[in-house]
Amino acid sequence: MNRSSYKGRLAPTPTGDFHLGHARTFHSAWRRAREAGGVLMLRIEDLDTQRCKAEFVEGMLADFAWMGIGWDGEPVYQSRRRSVYRAVWERLKAMDLIYPCTRSRRELRDCVRAPHEEEELREPIYPVAWRPGPGAAAAYDAPAGVTWRFRVPEGEVIRFTDARRGELAYTAGVDFGDFAVWRRDDVPAYELAVVADDLEMGITEVVRGEDLLLSTARQLLLYRALGGMPPSWCHEPLVRDENGRRLAKRYDSLSLRSFRERGVAFEALRNQ
Ligand code: GLU
């Protein structure tokens, strides 16, 4: 890639304190942009207004300062970009690639799970038999009130190259099923918002955690549907605690805030 054309992004979701796993991913995103002589944007993924809090945005900014991470330009707030996501919903609906789903989360929880060794990649697969008949979408002129799902091409193998793991392949309908693009509570779903933004912002490389590998496969389907050029991918390994559990925002003791507040230098952690 032409070095100066690199455009990356930091894409935090401010729903809690960030931890060492986030630090690894953010630092990698920052370093890769810098090494490429490129640009790094900050996009705050605050669509879920129930769970995203201003205090977590403040904490995140303090974490970035503590890690010595800077970005270019003004931060982009997803909560201010609803019309962009809505336009993508309209396009997908016009192409009849998405459908309204009235099943509950509980019904879906009881479905057969994808057979992955990696825990993060096991998830209930939405049964094809639950898809509504053709034309179900036409009855809606707004997304509110139901979950909107993307109809995946069952059996198609989605391939991509990851900067760390090399060639990867996931099968639609086996590793992941019909996924949400718009939530029942009228919030654009993660997959749709991220693709809409990465496309519009002209992101050339996405650096994020390995827990999102299946999302990359899903998002490639959205890129194809929207006729957009996908970025390159770099998925960072997850950080686990001493019991092998993946860190989550609820583990206070390993939060970046607690390190910061105890006066621990980020460099000291990095060099361990
Ligand atoms: N906001 C997402 C997260 O915090 C990351 C999204 C992405 O990098 O695509 O897990």
Map the helices and strands.
Blueprint: E1 7-10, H1 20-35, E2 39-44, H2 54-67, E3 76-77, H3 82-94, E4 98-101, H4 105-109, E5 147-150, E6 157-162, E7 166-171, E8 179-182, H5 190-201, E9 205-209, H6 213-226, E10 232-236, H7 256-261, H8 266-270
Helix pairs in contact: 3-5, 5-6
The structure holds glutamic acid (GLU).
Provide a descriptive summary of the structure in words.
The protein has 272 residues and is α/β, with parallel strands linked by helices. It folds into two domains: 1-80 and 240-272, HUPs (Rossmann fold), CATH 3.40.50; 81-197, HUPs (Rossmann fold, 3-Layer(aba) Sandwich), CATH 3.40.50. The chain contains eight helices and ten strands. Strand 6 and strand 7 form a beta hairpin. The protein starts with 6 loop residues before the first strand and ends with a helix. Glutamic acid (GLU) binds at residues 11-13, 45, 194, 206, 208, 212.
